[in-house]
TrEMBL record:
Annotated SMART domains: HDc
Pfam families: HD (PF01966)
Designated name of the protein: HD domain-containing protein
Higher taxonomy: Bacteria, Pseudomonadati, Pseudomonadota, Gammaproteobacteria, Lysobacterales
Keywords: Signal
Keyword Protein biosynthesis: no
Domain HD/PDEase: 47-164
Extent of the signal sequence: 1-24
Length: 227
């Protein structure tokens, strides 16, 4: 299987969709509120690049990085922030006049308040969401590792898959060649913004993976003329 076909296979797997409503539950347990948040995210965040599956990856990778650095995270904060950090990209919350991270940070309390989430931790969730993008500066452990996980998800095979998934299959915008600058921009900008020791340790491999993909893609498409 060629590298291009492999990445396209990844893009086909990039969306995980479940369908169940979120609901209030007085006296809900920790597992109850997590289930409600998971179901809410799966129902509402359907997109191949920044949907539910991306949130799940961010959550898992943030934990992996923190474990490698021997850092203890508040899992309540990380779970809520990871699963809801991109809600500002989706209707009815999306506001084209505002950054999606700020929209999500300002909205997340209204989603969590009736789930049983320990609301005394909401400020940390809001902070982690607000700084999850690679070009922002995180404060606190949960914010740091969510930030780095989110940045790393733009690199490697999954980074290529996410961007390729944006191509309009019906011939609209963007078309194939138009997404290449997004990949090259990620290569140039993202690595320097990964901050944790464990995150930085993963940058070279993911960067090389994406560079190799672009090299092979150019070779197989007459320098993108046939892409």
């Amino acid at each position: 299987m060629s590298y291009l076909k492999l990445v396209l296979c990844f893009s086909a797997l990039a969306v995980m969709t479940l369908s169940a409503p979120v609901g209030a539950a007085p006296g809900a347990t920790a597992s109850d509120w997590r289930q409600r948040v998971d179901e809410f995210a799966a129902e509402h965040f359907k997109h191949p690049a920044w949907g539910y599956s991306h949130s799940v990856r961010d959550y898992r990778l943030a934990h992996e990085l923190a474990e490698s650095d021997h850092v203890q995270l508040d899992d309540d904060v990380l779970f809520a922030a990871a699963y809801l950090h991109d809600m500002g990209m989706f209707p009815p919350w999306r506001d084209p006049k505002r950054d999606h991270a700020d929209v999500a940070a300002d909205t997340v309390a209204s989603v969590l308040k009736d789930t049983g989430f320990p609301m005394e931790k909401i400020a940390k969730v809001q902070g982690a969401i607000r700084t999850h993008m690679y070009d922002r500066t995180p404060q606190g452990a949960e914010a740091l590792y969510l930030h780095d996980a989110d940045a790393l998800d733009w690199l490697g095979a999954i980074g290529a898959a996410r961007i390729l998934a944006l191509i309009d299959a019906n011939g609209g915008k963007p078309q194939g060649p138009e997404v290449i600058p997004m990949l090259t921009s990620n290569l140039a900008e993202v690595p320097g913004h990964v901050l944790s020791p464990a995150g930085r340790a993963r940058v070279p491999a993911r960067k090389a993976e994406l560079e190799q993909f672009l090299h092979v893609l150019r070779n197989e498409t007459d320098n993108l003329r046939d892409f």
